[in-house]
Each structure stands twice: as structure tokens, then as C-alpha cells.
Amino acid sequence: MIPANPDQALARIKAETLIESLDWLREFHGRIVVVKFGGNAMVDEALQTAFAQDMAYLRFVGIKPVVVHGGGPQITARLSELGIQSEFKHGFRYTDEQTIKVVRDVLRNQVSKQLAELIEASGAQTVVLSGEDDNLFRAEKVTASTQEGEVDLGLVGEVRTVNPRSVLQAIDAGKIPVISTVAPTVYGELLNVNADLAASSLAVALGAEKLMVLTDVPGLYADWPNLDSLVSEITVSELRELIPALESGMIPKMQACLEAVEGGVPKAHIIDGRQPHSILLEIFTESGVGTQVTN
Asked: Does the pTM exceed 0.70?
């Protein structure tokens, strides 16, 4: 008997993986996928590179990725360098006039710039945008609701309207938009907006096929910290009932998924960004990863 060639065995596994992806390539070819980049993947160089490769791969197999990102760790680090203390109220960064300038600069000139460079190093072209560009986002100030009443958060808001023209122009030019989430009000006052919810609003406006939100956990736990309560799939009606009981950091992410699907996006996903190439695993394998939200 001739011993099996390990290289041939590996080649067969690779071929089977490619064939498994065929149905998904057929389903998503030419479709827009909005990806919220965040969590540990934003600060780990190897994960950043893997994410950039995923985005380039999607682009070259005919899928149209759009990247939306925040930058909490980078903003906190920059504020610290400037001697400005970060203040959080009920999970939100309190944002004053000095802080919003730092937020704007860090998101566009540091996070967006570095991410775009990594994607381009993987072979795909990019366009760096923010909510200020071409009326992409318009936001409205919000406060935090507590049992004691409303809490002022400063220059913090939520996206109320989306004009996706600049994003569609970038997509039509074969480029990957990389979008940071600061947004002006109708009066021109600049606000710090939640990137999860901004990504959701954009996915709806673009008629995206999917919204994918990277986080630092394997998915949604119905009864955290019970690790056996990981949910692989959930409907919007089930999620709506569950959201008030969730851990505070997960609420905006699940709210984003809920609003996206309610707004017409067929599927939304929470994905563990600590796993290299988790985007490709979710899109192109039968089992997928993370938690899927559907109607």
C-alpha cells in the first residue's frame, strides 16, 4: 500500500472548503455586506491583518464590503497622552468640545487611515469617509435614561438620517469604504455616535444583504455568564424580549442587529473578532460562527 501523501490530503481539504463556499459565493455575489469592526481585533496586529485580508478577499470574489468602525481604546489612549481624563456615564463616553476634537482626529487620521492601509496592502482599494462627508450621517443629541432620570452625555448622539451616496460611489468604483462615526446635527454641531448603531443604519440605507458586528465574545449569551446559554440563532421578536436583560456592553450591538433586520436587512450577525478570518468563516461555511439574527 502506498502511504497517503500529506500534501495531497491537505490539498483535498482545501478543495472541499472551496467547493463548500460555492453556494455562498453564488448567494452573495454582487451584494453589499456591512461590517462593524471593533473589539480586540482593533488592537491586535495579527487580527487587524487577518481582517484586512478578509475584506480584500470579499472584494475580489465579487462581494461588496463596507467597513464601519469605532475606536474606543485608541481614543482613550490619545486623551491620556493629552492629559485629558476619560469619563464614562452609563456606558457612554462623556464628550465635551475638547474630547470631540480628539475623537474626530483619532477615528479618521489614525484608525481609518491604518485600517485602509492594511486593506490596500492586501490588494484592494479603499476610500476613507466619516459621517461628516457628503451628508453621510445626520445625528441628534441623546441622553442616558436611568431610574434617577435623564443623564447628560455631552456631545453624544445617534444617527437619524443616512445619505449613502458617497458610499455607493465608492462601491461602484470598486473600492472598500472605511467609515468613522462622528456625525453633525442639522445645525452643524459635531457628535460622537455609537458605531454599532451607525453601522446598522447604514446597512438599512444601503439595502445590505448582511450586517456583521465583531465583538470579543463567541456570540450572544441568553443567560450570561452561563456559557451553556450561547445562542446560535434568534428571531427579532425573541431578541426584543431579551435585550433589557443583557449585559450593558452587548445591548448596543444586539440593538444594532435588531434594528437592521427590522429595517429590511435579511440577516445580522454577532461574530467573535478574536478568531482570525471569522468573517470568511461566517459567510462561506455551513456552520458559521457567532449568533445570527433573522426575522
From this structure: yes
